[in-house]
Structures are given as structure tokens and as C-alpha cells.
Amino acid sequence: MSNRCERSHTDRQRFVERLFFCPAHGSVLRREIAPGVLLSCPLCLADAHRERVAFAVRTRLAVRYLDAGLPLGMQDVGFDNFDCAVPEQRAAVAQAQNFVEHYRAGRSLILTGTALGKTHLLVAITKHVAARGAMVRYLNAADLLMAMTEVGY
Fold first, then answer.
1. pLDDT digit string (tens) for 65-100?
2. How far apart (Å, rounded) are the C-alpha atoms in residues 124 and 81?
């Protein structure tokens, strides 16, 4: 009987020696379930999957922003960091957000006026519409006129 208990204890000790614990979660990181076959921490695998998905989404959005022709250096521009110094700017932000909320394919938007933050608002609009999966193109007036002349308008 004592031999069986000793063997059981020894088997248990050998099993524990083959376990590796995850430093992040404290769960079993790897366990050799068969010679050369390791079982990994499921929480780490889930974290890695979430990170891969988030990276893929960020990459897809970055490509959409590049395809949309956004001006360089305006990656962090959005509605949340638009500084409304005058009432006209608050009205312009409200109209831009309304455009995004009610956007449907084929709509165009042209902003005019001085010192309203047109570039900032148009970049914010472009980013929001592109993030929804729509094909969108940012053009300033000079690029628009050039494109029109190239096609014969």
C-alpha cells in the first residue's frame, strides 16, 4: 500500500514538474500532454487573438485613410479634438456631425468660409465615413478642379 502511495506521489511530482505557469495569469502556461505536444495558456491565446484583430482593424482603417487621400500629418484629427472658439465653428461641427450621422452613398459635401476649420472637419468626416466601410475621397478645391479638367469638364 505504501508503495502505491509513493508511486502516486512520485507521478504527481513528475506531472507538476512538467507544468509551466503563465506569469501574466497564473494559469498553466504550457503542459506537455504528450511527448512534444504542448498545451498553451488559453487566456494568453485569447489576448493574442484580440491583439491580432485590433491590429488588423487599425491596419484596415489606415489603408482606407490613405486611399481616401487624407492630408499627411492629420491622423489624430477628429470631432473630439476640434477647438470651437466661435459660435460659427460650433455650428459647423454640428452640421459636419449631422452629415456623418445621416450619410448615404453618393452624397457630397463642400465646405466654404474662412477660419472655420474646414480641413479639420473634412478630415474628421472622411475618417468617420471611411470607418463605416464607405468609399470616400478627400479633395481640396485645387485637386477637384484638376480632376475635373482631366476628365474634360
1. 888 888 878 878 888 888 888 888 888 889 889 988
2. 10
- The span from the CA of 139 to the CA of 122, in Å, is 9
Residue whose C-alpha cell is 489606415: 62
Residue 36's alpha-carbon distances to 5, 17, 31, 51, 120, in angstroms, are 28, 15, 10, 27, 56
b/e sequence 119-144, b meaning 16+ C-beta within 10 Å: ebbbbbbbbbbbeeeeebebbeeeee
39 forms beta bridges with 31
Give the predicted TM-score (pTM) of the model: 0.60
Name the grid cell of 19: 507544468
Alpha-carbon span 34 to 77, nearest angstrom: 53
Distance (Å, whole) CA 38 – CA 28:
11
Query: C-alpha cell of 121?
Result: 472637419
